[in-house]
């Protein structure tokens, strides 16, 4: 049997389903589009050639795994670290099941992209090591997406990151960036895939330093001989071990679930902002499925400035494209007319309506932040309540905070970030570690805090927990906190009082609900929460 490599034109338009399939079916005639409607996706179909890659069982046809194995290209390696991970995978077959189920949406696309670049197909398994194929994975180093790009590297490889969209979680964009990055590392490090992978994990500069050190000491400079951080020492053996298990699952006691060797999604150009709840309804799919395919979108809609692209399951693409052609761009989101009131600012209006300041400025032709009372603004508005957009950034954070648990005997409080706050300061006040604080809130220590942001904190200090209900800080686990009623004296100021009791000005203002820049007067009573340890 011979497989052809030809572009395929389907009745509902030109689809690039990026790669290989013999099983894409024509949609029903009822979903045929007018000639003006096109799905702007172009790629070619490809399959492994049995004459090149050997004989396969009939049962393997239509399954992606034989094709992936046929494209293995790593050199042979024998190291005890590899066997350690082979044994781990054998003991955890349910882990393999979970990551294969998650990856089944994306593997076909990744394999096609690797084949197009003539790269080893073991690399298609790298997202299992990086993220367990979770497109929303986020690490303490601020790495995000299935390929775990940190912000700076993502931007360098063209992955936009803004309020609406994070290209590091966009499966198509991040796969292209990751394979480009790996290709460059491969060329940089003497066409050695193990060194390229080590550099992907630890950074090219760190790897170069290890190589130079071995060179100075007259030692070999292959991956197995380098002194590397523990994570990087284990990184390549993990991938090799996983490739071995996938390569011969029966020999390792694993029952590998099949992954169809056909496109899972079609890439459809939308050319405007669209409400994701509306898009899911138009495609006839659950909104969670839409988010899992389009994890780059942070909010309830696509980025108004682009990327204007949605990934839709192949079998739903015709229905979606037909209904999309029937809607003008203005009908793809709902609009609210809002009249500016006294005290409003663009940031408060944007926050209230789940949009961004930049969007308000763009839609309403505003050059700056100045608005006037009585002015009417047009605001794009979600059609469904927050909880409907379950994978939006806000809803993911809320679930993370609700799942978080502190140590036994600790109490959950909600802390509102104030100007000048940092993770270190908040953690120190509440007697917790920065790592615990960021974990509870699904963040990384390098993330930016914004005034008004809500954080969950689990503290054991009951006095602090009580104070926090009044927006007080907490202290460390060795603190003894006392509530002090202080009567203002002649010559006092908020700053002087704060300095005397070793607390911050913002804390004093918050505890007493005193506006910033307000005057205090002799005889006035202030409430303070003071750490008296050592005083």
Could you characterize the architecture of this molecule?
By secondary structure, the protein is α+β, with helices and mostly antiparallel strands. It folds into four domains: 9-30 and 38-47 and 261-329, no CATH class; 77-252, Lysozyme, CATH 1.10.530; 334-382, Membrane-bound Lytic Murein Transglycosylase D, Chain A; 404-531, Roll (Membrane-bound Lytic Murein Transglycosylase D, Chain A). It has 22 helices and ten strands. It has helices spanning 50-53, 64-70, 80-91, 93-103, 107-116, 126-131, 151-156, 171-188, 193-202, 204-216, 230-247, 276-283, 287-293, 314-325, 346-352, 357-363, 393-403, 423-430, 434-440, 462-468, 494-500, 505-511; strands at residues 9-10, 13-14, 265-269, 309-313, 334-339, 376-381, 411-416, 454-459, 481-487, 525-531. The strands form five sheets. The chain has a two-stranded antiparallel ribbon with strand order 1-2. It has a two-stranded antiparallel ribbon with strand order 3-4. Helix 5 runs parallel beside helix 8. The N and C termini lie far apart (86 Å). Residues 1-59 and 469-480 have low confidence and may be disordered.
